[in-house]
């Protein structure tokens, strides 16, 4: 039985999603199979398109053009200018991709970037982003965001909140849940005994309480308990010494306490090829690690490298 294709969602039509989807097909045809759920009219002029009626037609269609499960999004696409009427269709494409993978028709979900304000304004989108929406669709209490490239994997415990709110949001329950979901997901991906490195919250991991007590009172006791259960978890570690090559060789994933603590190192190491992976859904979901890039949409300058990496990672992580 041939591998099932990956379902790629349209993302925000006014962004670079249509352009990088077309470029990804050009780069990956003959290597892996995927199909786009979206409006073929939104693709760049001249893109070879192979409209399909079901995911099973995608492998044969890849040789002719970008396979598209065509959906009418209404108005035409204007690069850089989000149209409210597109928003319900963007959301519907994500729902459909999840339904297809859960039904076994697709092997994984890969999502093009969305514009959250456009979805809120045009579709009443009630979620902070893709991760929370996917968790709701999957029927799980919480999903975890992991950013990955060849050099590094990072997981932020708290994500899109002001830095001033991080100490209050960072509870023992949230940290433990993040560690357990990450460890289980890495085992499911083929790492028999995942090594997790947990960063401290404060500079120098609190320096013995001189710069904060979260490490002493919460993080270290939790790590000790999890190690007692057999998890291979280290920390709390000073974040400023966790990301040089020798340190990275000692772990499989870094658990970071807030957004920038995780994203700055991975984007510094490999800005173009980072992939956003959602853990804990019960199916594979990846995404390029960038946004809609309205400022360059329609110019032909969009770099498909992160989407190509996301599609390859989806293929590699998806069950046979």
Automatic annotation (TrEMBL):
Substrate binds at residues 130-131, 267, 276, 285. The keyword 4Fe-4S does not apply. Pathway: Cofactor biosynthesis; pyridoxine 5'-phosphate biosynthesis; pyridoxine 5'-phosphate from D-erythrose 4-phosphate: step 4/5. It is an enzyme of class 1 (oxidoreductase). Its cofactor is Zn(2+); Mg(2+); Co(2+). InterPro entries: PdxA, PdxA_fam. Its EC number is 1.1.1.262. Binds 1 divalent metal cation per subunit. Can use ions such as Zn(2+), Mg(2+) or Co(2+). A divalent metal cation binds at residues 160, 204, 259. It is found in: Cytoplasm. It catalyses: 4-(phosphooxy)-L-threonine + NAD(+) = 3-amino-2-oxopropyl phosphate + CO2 + NADH. Gene3D superfamilies: Isopropylmalate Dehydrogenase (3.40.718.10). Pfam families: PdxA (PF04166). Keywords: Cobalt, Cytoplasm, Magnesium, Metal-binding, NAD, NADP, Oxidoreductase, Pyridoxine biosynthesis, Zinc. Homodimer. Belongs to the PdxA family. Catalyzes the NAD(P)-dependent oxidation of 4-(phosphooxy)-L-threonine (HTP) into 2-amino-3-oxo-4-(phosphooxy)butyric acid which spontaneously decarboxylates to form 3-amino-2-oxopropyl phosphate (AHAP). NCBIfam families: pdxA (TIGR00557), PRK05312.1 (NF003699). The active site is located at the dimer interface. PANTHER family: 4-HYDROXYTHREONINE-4-PHOSPHATE DEHYDROGENASE (PTHR30004), D-THREONATE 4-PHOSPHATE DEHYDROGENASE (PTHR30004:SF6). This is 4-hydroxythreonine-4-phosphate dehydrogenase. The lineage of its organism: Bacteria, Pseudomonadati, Pseudomonadota, Alphaproteobacteria, Rhodobacterales.
């Amino acid at each position: 039985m041939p591998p099932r294709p990956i379902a790629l969602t349209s993302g925000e039509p006014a962004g670079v999603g249509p352009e990088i989807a077309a470029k990804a097909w050009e780069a990956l045809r003959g290597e892996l199979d995927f199909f786009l759920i979206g409006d073929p009219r939104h693709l760049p002029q001249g893109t070879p398109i192979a409209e399909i009626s079901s995911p099973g037609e995608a492998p044969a269609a890849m040789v002719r053009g970008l396979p598209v499960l065509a959906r009418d999004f209404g108005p035409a696409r204007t690069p850089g200018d989000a149209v409210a009427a597109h928003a319900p269709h963007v959301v519907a494409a994500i729902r459909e991709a999840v339904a297809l993978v859960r039904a076994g028709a697709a092997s994984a979900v890969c999502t093009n970037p969305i514009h959250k304000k456009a979805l809120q304004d045009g579709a009443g989108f009630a979620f902070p982003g893709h991760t929370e929406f996917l968790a709701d669709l999957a029927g799980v209490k919480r999903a975890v965001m992991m950013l990955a490239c060849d050099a590094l994997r990072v997981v932020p415990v708290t994500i899109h909140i002001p830095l001033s709110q991080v100490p209050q949001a960072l509870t023992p329950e949230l940290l433990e849940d993040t560690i357990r979901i990450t460890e289980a997901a890495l085992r499911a991906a083929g790492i028999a005994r995942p090594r997790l490195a947990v960063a401290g919250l404060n500079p120098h991991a609190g320096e013995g309480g001189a710069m904060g007590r979260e490490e002493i009172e919460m993080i270290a006791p939790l790590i000790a308990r999890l190690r007692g259960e057999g998890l291979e978890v280290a920390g709390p570690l000073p974040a400023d010494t966790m990301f040089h090559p020798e340190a990275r060789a000692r772990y499989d994933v870094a658990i970071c306490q807030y957004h920038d603590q995780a994203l700055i190192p991975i984007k510094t190491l490999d800005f173009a090829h980072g992939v956003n992976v959602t853990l804990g859904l019960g199916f594979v979901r990846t995404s390029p690690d960038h946004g809609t890039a309205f400022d360059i949409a329609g110019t032909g300058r969009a770099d498909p490298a992160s989407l190509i990496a996301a599609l390859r990672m989806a293929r590699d992580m998806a069950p046979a």
